[in-house]
Design goal:
The protein is of the alpha/beta class. The protein contains 22 helices and ten strands. The structure holds flavin mononucleotide (FMN) and iron/sulfur cluster.
Length: about 475
C-alpha cells in the first residue's frame, strides 16, 4: 500500500555516488574559529528527555549521542543544558562540578563512536519559570492576587466583597466574565499557566539577570571545556531568557532592553564573560533567531544587526533558527505547561509537511543567507549554520554552492536515521530511512517523554542496544542498527 506521507517528501531521484559525495561541498572541511571541522554536516541540538531527574547524564543519554556519532557528522550540538544548579526535571544540567564526570563520559563516548571525527558542542541555556495551566477553581481560590487594581476592574456588586466570598464568586463566574475582569497577565496565567518574562523587573531575580547571567554562562562554558567538549553554543534562540532579551518585546528600561543596542547588550556581555573564562582557543558560538515570527516581534533586520554585533565581538559561529516562542503557543490542557513549538512561530521552527508555502524544505535558509551576505559584505568570515527541513544531499549542496550558509544542519533527518551522513558518504543513499516531517518526535518532546522516531518504533527486527526502552516499555530508545 502507498504510504501517503511519503508522497509529501522532497523527491530524490538519485542519490550521490561515493565519488560525488567525496568531492561535494557538504563533505568538505571548514575552520570554525580555531577548530577544524572535517565536514560541514552538523546535528543541531535536540532534547531527548533522557537525563536523570537530577539532570545527570544517564546510560540512555550516552546511547543517544553514541548512535548519532556512529554516522560521523562534522559536529553534534548536545541538547539544551541548564546552566543553573536548580532542579529542572530530566533536562541535562551543567550548573555544578558534580555534573562533570557524566559529561566527560558523554564526550568519551562520542569520540570513540566517531573515531575522533565528530566535533562536539554543548548548547547552554537559561530559562525562566513557567507553571502548568491551573485548574480554574484552584487558581481563584489559591493563586490569584486580590488587590485594589483587581477590585477596580470588577463590577460594583463584587468589588467590595470580602476576599473569601470574592474568590468563590470568581470561581462561579463565566470565562467571558474572567476575560473582562482579570488584568491581562492574570488572565494569561489562568488560561496558559503563569509565565515569567525578562521584563518582569519588579521581581528581584529577573531584575538581577544582567548581573548574574554572565557569570553563570561563563562557569557553565568552562565546565564544558573541562569536560572535554570542543566548544559551546550559547542558546540565544526560541522561547528562553537570552532570546527574550534580544526580542523587540523587551522594553526593559535599565539599559538591557528598548532599542537594539540595549537588547543586544546582555548577550554581548555574556559572550565576553564566557570568552574570558574559557580562553581564546575554545569555540564559542551562538544560536539565535533570524526571525521571531511574532506580531511585534523581532524580524530579519534585527537579526542582521545582531549578527554583525556578534561577529564583531568574536563569536566563532552563528547558527540561525526561527520562531519557537511562548507568545503564540497553543493553550495547554489543565495540568500541563505551554510548549513553545505548538503555535505558528513554533511551526516555523520545526516545520512539517502541513505548513503553508513554500513547504518545510529549507524553509529557513533565506534568513541564514541574508545574515551571511551581510557578514561577508562587512568583512567577517564567521561561519553561518542553517537548519530547518533539510534532508537531501542535493539540497545541502545547492545551499552551500549558492553561499547561503557554511554549514547545513539536519535535526529530524538525523534522528530518523543517525547513519544518514554515513550512508551518503558511502554512496548508499538509497538505504536512508527518510524523515516524514510529521513531528511524532516533537509531540513526545512536548510531553517531556523520551523522544524517539516513529520509523524506528516499528522496527522490531533488531534489539535496542542494552535493551533500552521507553518508560512505558513500548518504544526502543536507540535507532535500529544499519546492517
Ligand atoms: C525533539 C526535538 C528537540 C529539540 N531540541 C532543541 C534544543 O534543545 N535546542 C535547540 O536549539 N533546538 C532544538 N530543536 C530544534 C532543532 O535543533 C532544529 O532547529 C529543528 O528541528 C529544525 O531542523 P530540522 O528540520 O532539521 O529538524 C529540537 C527539535 C526536535 C525535533
Ligand atoms: S518522528 Fe521520525 S519521521 Fe517523524 S518527524 Fe520525527 S524524525 Fe521525522
Amino acid at each position: 500500500m502507498v504510504d501517503r506521507r511519503r508522497l509529501a517528501l522532497l523527491p530524490i531521484e538519485r542519490w550521490p555516488t561515493r565519488d560525488q559525495a567525496a568531492v561535494s561541498r557538504w563533505f568538505a572541511p571548514l575552520e570554525v574559529g580555531r577548530l577544524h571541522l572535517r565536514e560541514r554536516t552538523w546535528i543541531p541540538a535536540m532534547v531527548p528527555w533522557r537525563a536523570s531527574p537530577e539532570g545527570e547524564v544517564t546510560d540512555a543519554v550516552i546511547a543517544w549521542y553514541r548512535r548519532f556519532a556512529e554516522g560521523r557528522p562534522g559536529a553534534i550540538v548536545v541538547e539544551a543544558t541548564g546552566i543553573r544548579d536548580v532542579p529542572s526535571g530530566p533536562l541535562l544540567r551543567v550548573g555544578h562540578d558534580r555534573f562533570l564526570p557524566g559529561l566527560e563520559r558523554l564526550v568519551r563516548a562520542v569520540r570513540e563512536a566517531s573515531n575522533g571525527q565528530t566535533r562536539l558542542f554543548l548548547q547552554i541555556i537559561d530559562f525562566l519559570s513557567i507553571k502548568r495551566r491551573p485548574d480554574p477553581a484552584v487558581f481563584f481560590r489559591r493563586f490569584l492576587k486580590i488587590d485594589d487594581p483587581l477590585r477596580a476592574r470588577l463590577p460594583a456588586e463584587l468589588a467590595d466583597l470580602p476576599e473569601p466570598e470574592l474568590r468563590e464568586a470568581l470561581v462561579a463566574a463565566s470565562p467571558d466574565d474572567h476575560a473582562r475582569w482579570l488584568p491581562p497577565r492574570e488572565l494569561e496565567s489562568l488560561r496558559m499557566g503563569q509565565r515569567e518574562r525578562v521584563t518582569d523587573v519588579h521581581l528581584p531575580h529577573v531584575r538581577e539577570l544582567p548581573r548574574v547571567l554572565p557569570e553563570l554562562f561563563a562557569a557553565a562554558a568552562d565546565r564544558a571545556r573541562r569536560a572535554g567538549f570542543d566548544g559551546v553554543e550559547l542558546h540565544y534562540a526560541h522561547a528562553y531568557t537570552m532570546a527574550s532579551f534580544l526580542s523587540r518585546k523587551n522594553d526593559r528600561a535599565d539599559g538591557y532592553g528598548g532599542d537594539r543596542e540595549g537588547r543586544v547588550r546582555l548577550p554581548l556581555e555574556v559572550h565576553a564573560a564566557v570568552r574570558a573564562a574559557v580562553g581564546p582557543k575554545f569555540t564559542v558560538g551562538a544560536r539565535f533567531l533570524g526571525h521571531e515570527h511574532l506580531e511585534d516581534g523581532s524580524d530579519l533586520d534585527d537579526a542582521r544587526h545582531y549578527a554583525l554585533c556578534f561577529a564583531r565581538a568574536g563569536f566563532d559561529f552563528l547558527s540561525i533558527s526561527k520562531g519557537g516562542k511562548f507568545e503564540d503557543a497553543k493553550q495547554p490542557p489543565v495540568g500541563e505547561a505551554a510548549y513553545p513549538y505548538t503555535g505558528p512561530s513554533g511551526h516555523e521552527c520545526m516545520p512539517t509537511t502541513k505548513i503553508g508555502p513554500p513547504g518545510p524544505f529549507g524553509r529557513n535558509v533565506p534568513l541564514a543567507a541574508a545574515i551571511r551576505a551581510d557578514l561577508r559584505a562587512a568583512g567577517f568570515d564567521t561561519p553561518v549554520v542553517t537548519a530547518g527541513g533539510i534532508a537531501s544531499p542535493w539540497q545541502a549542496e545547492s545551499i552551500l554552492e549558492r553561499g547561503e550558509a557554511d554549514v547545513v544542519a539536519c535535526a529530524r533527518q538525523a534522528l530518523a536515521d543517525p547513519d544518514f551522513f554515513r550512508k551518503i558518504r558511502e554512496g548508499r543513499g538509497e538505504e536512508v530511512r527518510r524523515c516524514l516531517f510529521t513531528n511524532y518526535c516533537e509531540g513526545l518532546d512536548q510531553k517531556h517523554r523520551e523522544v524517539t522516531c516513529q520509523l524506528w518504533d516499528r522496527d522490531h527486527t533488531s534489539p535496542s542496544p542494552d535493551g533500552l526502552r521507553s518508560a512505558d516499555g513500548k518504544r526502543r530508545l536507540v535507532a535500529p542498527p544499519w546492517s
